Amino acid sequence: MELLIKNIRACDPQTGLDGITDIGIDGGKIVSLGKTDEHAQRVIDAKGKLCALPGLFDMHVHFRDPGLTYKEDIITGANAAKAGGFTGVACMPNTKPPIDSPEGVKYVFEKAKKTGIDVFPIACVTKGMKSQELCDYDALKAAGVTAISDDGRPVVESGLMRRALEYAKMFDIAVISHCEDLGLADGGQMNEGFMATYLGLKGITRAAEEVMVSRDILIAEATHTAIHIAHVSTRGSVELVRQA
Q: What count of other Cβ atoms lies within 10 Å of the Cβ of residue 186?
């Protein structure tokens, strides 16, 4: 055996495992799990230091591919994920062009084959993320999409958000909402308050987020549909979600 990690806390919610154990590794793979007196080329005592977990999943990443790969791409993003212990990710659609069609979804899946991790593309709620016309959720579902979001942009018109939730529910697609009232945000750069004034930056009232969180919660309730609120960043938003 190449490596024996002793006295490590191993946790696996799927199997109910949670306790101190030994892990044997050979050829880059776990070959034993449980207290052992076996010898290994290298032994690490992890008591009180390490925790072994299944591969983690990040449901909100930005790989910026296609079109904005000077920021990140699917390969570099996946490498960063692997280095951090993440074996699966869901990437947001605010690319150039946005992922709003089956062709865009297939592009991500195809490029992700080379990464060694699971990459799930999230598609747009509206075409071009323009908050004017819903995407074809039937076609997106067929292409492998399990969630939609206009991440970075809100679905501005409330009636359109209602139709999006109702339409997505038909295909069991999760809706992830970017909650921001653009009129209240008014081009601001950071949270409104002393620090914004001190730095000379235009502030954003917390109401810009909380108004839309409240709206989307009420629409979800009215349509008997689940919604995921992304980017929760104010005390008021936390309380609204808690009450919902």
A: 12
User: CA Rg, the chain, in Å?
Assistant: 22
Per the listing, tokens 């109401």 go with 207
Indicate the pTM of the whole model.
0.85
- pLDDT (tens digit, 9 = 90+) per residue, 107-162? 999 999 989 999 999 999 999 999 999 999 999 999 999 999 999 999 999 999 99
DSSP H or E stretch at residue 229:
strand 228-230
User: Three-state DSSP class for 147?
Assistant: strand
Q: Contact 119/75 with Cβ under 8 angstroms? A: no
Q: What are 44's strand-pairing partners?
A: 5
